[in-house]
Amino acid sequence: MSKDKQFSLPGYQQYSLPKGSNSHGSIILVRATIPSSEVKPVHCGDGVEAQAVRIHLANDSLVVYNIYKPPPKRLEAGELLTQATQELVIIAGDFNAHHPTINPTTTMNYDDHHLMELLTDVPEITLINTGEPTHILGGTLDLTFISTELVPLAQWEVDDELTSDHFVTTTTLRMELLPPPPRPPPRCNTKNANWKLYQDEIQK
């Protein structure tokens, strides 16, 4: 989306990264009735485009990342995927990945090694693609990662009717099924309280 072509969709809050000389352009749309705010994305590598928006939930929040990694660029996803150790995340986009785990008929490249090592080292994040191609030529270039605790709430699918050279992928999260966060530890240790001293102090 270029700066001179404004896009708007009634009823949605728009967060956009305009198309420019060093940007292909991207957009995140959030229903206007859902509280949200833009977040500064972590660095994902030189020339890798990233957007981040925080969705404010009743008892928690979810950070949504939109990623585009051009084919010649190197992905640096360590800080990105380890976000899941600190908060709930969904990370989706065109990673131009060709790892045999995702695409059995392709040759592994640097980014594929990098992503698979991170998935091994960071159990808090999970790749939820089902193995279906996301590109009309058969590749699975578009990946979706979510916080592992969200996996039981997630459904991922490809829509083969909405397409350009990539198919649309849809991730549905049933957030109402997410257990409430654990209660914080008590600020006072009442087991070791000197209640007589406390009562005496109150009387004074």
From TrEMBL:
Gene3D superfamilies: Endonuclease/exonuclease/phosphatase
Molecular functions per Gene Ontology: RNA-directed DNA polymerase activity
Tree of life domain: Eukaryota
Keyword list, A-Z: Nucleotidyltransferase, RNA-directed DNA polymerase, Transferase
Coiled coil, from the record: none
Pfam families: Exo_endo_phos_2
Domain Endonuclease/exonuclease/phosphatase: 63-168
PANTHER family: ENDO/EXONUCLEASE/PHOSPHATASE DOMAIN-CONTAINING PROTEIN, PHD-TYPE DOMAIN-CONTAINING PROTEIN
Name this polypeptide is given: RNA-directed DNA polymerase from mobile element jockey-like 25
Organism, scientific name: Homarus americanus
